[in-house]
Design brief:
- The chain is an alpha+beta fold.
- The chain is about 30% helix and about 25% strand.
- It has a 5-stranded mixed sheet with strand order 3-6-7-8-9. The chain has a two-stranded antiparallel ribbon with strand order 1-2.
- Residues about 1-5 have low confidence and may be disordered.
Length: about 160
């Protein structure tokens, strides 16, 4: 990575251009690229099963499921980009080459040992700032347990 970008941080545009040249997957966090952890077989199986289920349920509807290759822009001062494990987006799908969810309404994070703390705290709070997101689902594959957040009619989170 360019030393100037590392020192001063990346803009969202610089990150997207840089991301296409990388071998590994990264998120943009506070202007810095953060390499994402690899997933276990259990994690991948849960994510794939949930994506497939959502994809089938949404056939013929105005929304579609997406997997961990689609990013969600967080409206923070640094323009963070997160890659949830899966989700649902609605809206404009004309740009089939876009890496970004157009209007995410659901994001799902499946915990792993290395990401659970961030997924439970910081990512949830970041996702809550995305106006279009109505639902956040956190999945703990080891218990098993799910935590479900829903935006209420008053726009507060339940």
């Amino acid at each position: 990575m360019d030393k100037n970008l590392a020192r001063h941080g990346m803009s969202p545009g610089e990150f997207i251009a840089w991301l296409g040249e990388q071998e590994h997957k990264y998120e943009l966090v506070d202007g810095q690229p953060l390499m994402m952890a690899g997933a276990t077989r259990r994690h991948r199986r849960i994510s794939l099963s949930m994506t497939t289920f959502l994809d089938i349920q949404l056939q013929g509807k105005k929304c579609q499921a997406f997997n961990s290759d689609t990013m969600v822009k967080i409206p923070s001062a640094n323009g963070n980009y997160r890659f949830p494990d899966l989700g649902v987006e609605c809206g404009d799908f004309r740009d089939e080459n876009s890496l970004e969810a157009s209007e995410p309404v659901l994001v799902v994070e499946v915990f792993s040992e290395t990401t659970e703390g961030t997924d439970r705290t910081r990512k949830v709070e970041e996702y809550k700032t995305v106006n279009t997101i109505q639902y956040i689902l956190l999945v703990d594959p080891n218990i098993p347990e799910v935590l479900f957040y829903m935006r209420g009619d008053d726009m507060n989170w339940i």
